[in-house]
Amino acid sequence: MKAFRGSILHCLGDPGEASDPAAWEYFEDGLLVVADGRVEAVGDAATLAESLPSQAEITDYRGKLIVPGFIDCHVHFPQLDIIGSFGAQLLDWLNQYAYPAEARFADAAHAREVATAFVDELLRNGTTTALVFGTVHPHSADAIFEAAESKGMRLVAGKVLMDSNCPEALRDDPESAYADSKALIEKWHGRGRLGYAITPRFALTSSPEQLAAAGRLAAEYPDVWIHTHLAENMEEVATIARQFPQSRSYLDVYDGFGLLREKSVFAHCLHMDHEDRRCMASKGGAAAFCPTSNLFLGSGLFDLPAMRAAGVSSGLGTDVGGGTSLSLLRTASEAYKVLHMQEHALPSMQALYLATLGAAEALRLDDRIGNFAAGKEADFVVLDVEGSSLSARRCAATASIEEKLFALMTLADDRHVAATYLLGNIVDMY
Fold first, then answer.
1. Is the pLDDT assigned to residue 303 strictly greater than 70?
2. Is 7 within the bounds of a domain?
3. Which has the closest alpha carbon to 380: 45, 116, 2?
4. Residue 133: burial class (beta carbons within 10 Å; 0-12, 13-18, 19+)
5. How many structural domains does the chain have?
6. pLDDT tier for residue 430 given thresholds of 50, 70 and 90
7. Kindly report the CA angle at 415 between 409 and 421, in degrees rounded to 5?
């Protein structure tokens, strides 16, 4: 048995714009008790310490903040090396930066090297679970799964399906896409902490035949995830309307091919109407809110209140490399600004929810991760408010945990991650 002492904060539900105090729990001097990689108990240190067995190992993080491990609902590991690439909107950016970078993944050794670096960067930023895009190459999925497995990290990923409106070097075909994905599902899905996601890039780069093949896989494997992009850019949306004139909307394209269901996660979801959101909610789909890439590529603003009102689960996604940081703290800061521009609030507790329990709910993993409920996997992050001189100064002037968390959300980055734990074991990040 292990125990970790420090200030402890986690969400019990969605705090909403009102920052409902019943939806989160804070122990200024708390104790997180872990046994066999799972949460045994969480509470006040003075109370829980009395019940600890004498041989329990206690790690002292007093002065620091312990929160559940961050969960990234949408990110591209092959785009790690093009983060911060200047000056284009989505479709031009894909052609200028993303596709050339992904073509390099024909080299399996390159895929493995980037996958290892990517997983290390996630953990360095306190991300303990991620939903990840690979490339069209089957060995890209092998590479990211191998890298995550070597760390004991929970990760869901898949090989990209792409057979039209894309470079020849990055094309598969409906038959090979089906066969390769099926083989990867059989190899990786449910292996340890790993899960597979059927991954059509977006409807623009998939023929009807390929989307039908993806739908066939989804029917054969109802327990796997579906991961794709939706309504990110206005030009993209207009092109989809011309490509699939029989469909009511972009979402309807996916629905028509059996790709909208529980465990379907759609990145962006910016240009949607109420009927789309209602339909997504009714069938159990979820949205990944990717504020840094939406701002960086000039795509639009995510309407979180409309998603919540419709009953759509949402979690934060970094969307690197269109996104500009693998830190979900930095991502939450940009989410605040996106909502502020729409005259909505994003209190710090709701931001924490979107990066932890809310993200777990969006991925249908909230029975295993997302907070410190007894029995859940003990993935957590230790945040150091003194990670920079400015954050130390600002946090010293805060009057509440909500204010301190907001200051961290605004100012923090990987320097503020003192430690990352997977199943109660510290990760060597350096």
1. yes
2. yes
3. 2
4. buried
5. 2
6. low
7. 90
d(CA 257, CA 224): 16
Residue 340 lies in a domain: no
Is residue 17 one of the residues assigned to a domain? Answer: yes
Strand-pairing partners, residue 286, are 265, 313
Read off the pLDDT of each residue in 16-28 and give the average, rounded to a whole number: 96
Average pLDDT rounded to a whole number, residues 142-157: 98
Q: Are 3 and 57 in contact (CB under 8 A)?
A: yes
Whether pLDDT at 429 is above 90: no
- What is the rounded distance in angstroms from the CA atom of residue 77 to the CA atom of residue 63? 34
Lowest mean pLDDT among 28-32, 55-59, 73-77: 55-59
Domain boundary residue, one of 326, 354, 385: 326
In the predicted model, is pLDDT for residue 162 greater than 80? yes
d(CA 387, CA 414): 9
SS3 call for 85: coil
**pLDDT-based confidence at residue 88 (cuts at 50, 70, 90):** confident
Show the beta-strand stretches assigned E in 69-150: 70-76, 127-133
Summarize the confidence of residues 181-195 as an average pLDDT.
98
pLDDT score at 50: 87
- Answer yes or no: do 151 and 274 share one domain: yes
- Range(s) of the domain holding residue 142: 70-326
Co-location of 130 and 270 in the same domain: yes
Same domain, 172 and 226: yes
- Whether residue 64 lies inside any domain: the answer is yes
Cα separation, 14 vs 234, whole angstroms: 30
Whether residue 111 is found in the same domain as residue 61? no
The CATH number of residue 381's host domain is 2.30.40.10
Q: Indicate the pTM of the whole model.
A: 0.98
What CATH number corresponds to the domain at position 274?
A: 3.20.20.140
